[in-house]
């Protein structure tokens, strides 16, 4: 899965689950400040991202995540590591 495909999936999840307008979901958008994603929403988001990997996601992997691009980068790294 490419980074663009991951980004598109994240946009869909955020729009469908949190009713965030797709035009607001850009790579540099900050989860808390720009998209109003709080810690409980973040946990829900992690749960919804799990199927992209086909395995559990460790919340520790997301400690440094602040933007949409951060999510894409973490997921891409996990998928790449899984394939290796």
Automatic annotation (TrEMBL):
Organism name: Pseudoxanthomonas wuyuanensis
Family as reported in the entry's similarity comment: Belongs to the acyl carrier protein (ACP) family.
InterPro entries: ACP, ACP-like_sf, PP-bd_ACP
SUPFAM superfamilies for this protein: ACP-like
Short name of any one Pfam family annotated for the protein: PP-binding
Record-level GO cellular component terms: cytoplasm
PTM section of the record: 4'-phosphopantetheine is transferred from CoA to a specific serine of apo-ACP by AcpS. This modification is essential for activity because fatty acids are bound in thioester linkage to the sulfhydryl of the prosthetic group.
Protein name according to UniProt: Acyl carrier protein
Record's function text: Carrier of the growing fatty acid chain in fatty acid biosynthesis.
GO molecular function term, any single one: acyl carrier activity
Modified residues annotated as O-(pantetheine 4'-phosphoryl)serine in this record: 39
Compartments in which it is found: Cytoplasm
Domain (Carrier): residue spans on this chain: 4-79
UniProt keyword annotation of Nucleotide-binding present: no
Record-linked HAMAP family: Acyl_carrier
Record keywords: Cytoplasm, Fatty acid biosynthesis, Fatty acid metabolism, Lipid biosynthesis, Lipid metabolism, Phosphopantetheine, Phosphoprotein
Plastid found in the keyword field: no
Pathway: Lipid metabolism; fatty acid biosynthesis
């Amino acid at each position: 899965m490419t980074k663009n495909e991951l980004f598109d999936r994240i946009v869909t999840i955020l729009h469908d689950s949190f009713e965030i307008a797709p035009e607001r979901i850009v790579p540099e958008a900050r989860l808390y400040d720009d998209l109003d994603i709080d810690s409980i929403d973040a946990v829900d988001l992690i749960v919804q991202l799990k199927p992209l990997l086909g395995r559990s996601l460790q919340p520790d992997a997301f400690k440094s995540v602040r933007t949409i691009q951060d999510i894409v980068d973490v997921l891409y790294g996990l998928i790449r590591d899984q394939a290796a």
